[in-house]
Amino acid sequence: xxxxxxxxxxxxxxxxxxxxxxxxxxxxxxxxxxxxxxxxxxxxxxxxxxxxxxxxxxxxxxxxxxxxxxxxxxxxxxxxxxxxxxxxxxxxxxxxxxxxxxxxxxxxxxxxxxxxxxxxxxxxxxxxxxxxxxxxxxxxxxxxxxxxxxxxxxxxxxxxxxxxxxxxxxxxxxxxxxxxxxxxxxxx
Length: 188
What we know:
The chain is mainly β. It has a single domain, classed as Beta Barrel (Porin). The protein contains two helices and ten strands, in the order H-H-E-E-E-E-E-E-E-E-E-E. Strands 1-3-4-6-7-8-9-10 form an eight-stranded antiparallel beta barrel.
């Protein structure tokens, strides 16, 4: 899997922002279990990783993926966000294809007394697939399913690692993506 220069730029920029996010609440040092903190509030998120496009005849089924979004934590178990997701080019014989999606996703967090919080989620939105050469441009209603785990560094900052399945419905070509991504979530 070959990553472009923009992939590495986004990756390093994401991790460079972690110290800035942790200084936002200097009095909030350390992690407290969910029952000891107020569990609601606005959060922002950013993720980067790899995406696999299930497309027969592809010369490269792998591409980088990045996304960013804003959400709201309703309580220790329920949250929702809106994210914009973008993939790099998947290689096809005679061209390539890339995609983007705007998804609204609802998550259920399995809150517990540890710093690790497993979660599941489902979302709906709109997606675009951009063909280069042999592939056509398609768009339509998009769906997403996700599962992962967050590690709470502080009460406001969490590292997130997860799997996502994305698909653009009613398209004439394969749009099923399997993504593995890691990122940060900062709650205000």
